[in-house]
Design a protein that fits this description.
This protein has one helix and eight strands, in the order E-E-E-E-E-E-E-E-H. The protein is mainly β. The chain has one domain. Strands 1, 2, 3, 4, 5, 6, 7 and 8 form an eight-stranded parallel beta sheet that branches.
Length: 150
């Protein structure tokens, strides 16, 4: 049985990583990443920026993303987020105010059914949770509880 990882990493503001970044668990980016990024759950905070070829399970963009991203689960662009380049994902949410200038390909299990390509009501709750996570990690100090749960 696979043990769920609670790994948590931060690339803080004033830190720039240029090259390959590979991570497990949650990665919050407040600084800058350039190059190649692979990981599970990636959150780009409002002050963060990623200029990379990216392959993740889930990505939430509250800052800037430029490049190519493949998100096997979901990609969420928050009201403060900007995404440009190429996007391939399963579920896709752009909140009002979010900026998208990208070629987008949403992958579903039933691409022949146009109804499956619509955003379900459950996506609103996911987007709201992602907004809370970015707001939480955009603060100057880190909270004691870094799990994102209240």
């Amino acid at each position: 049985m696979k043990n769920k990882s609670k790994d948590f990493s931060i690339i803080d503001k004033e830190l720039t990583v240029d090259g390959n970044v590979a991570t497990k668990g949650k990665l919050v980016i407040k600084g800058v990443v350039k190059g190649v990024l692979t990981g599970d759950v990636v959150v780009i905070a409002e002050e963060g920026a990623v200029f990379a070829e990216t392959k993740v399970t889930s990505m939430t963009i509250g800052g800037t993303f430029e490049g190519e991203v493949e998100a096997s689960n979901e990609l969420i662009i928050l009201p403060t987020g900007k995404c440009s380049g190429k996007v391939v994902c399963k579920d896709f949410v752009v909140e009002p105010g979010g900026i998208l200038n990208a070629q987008v390909n949403c992958i579903t299990g039933a691409e022949d059914n146009p109804e499956t390509n619509r955003m379900s009501s459950g996506k609103k709750e996911t987007a709201e949770k992602a907004t809370r996570v970015v707001q939480k990690f955009s603060k100057k100090t880190l909270p004691d509880d870094m799990s994102g749960e209240k």
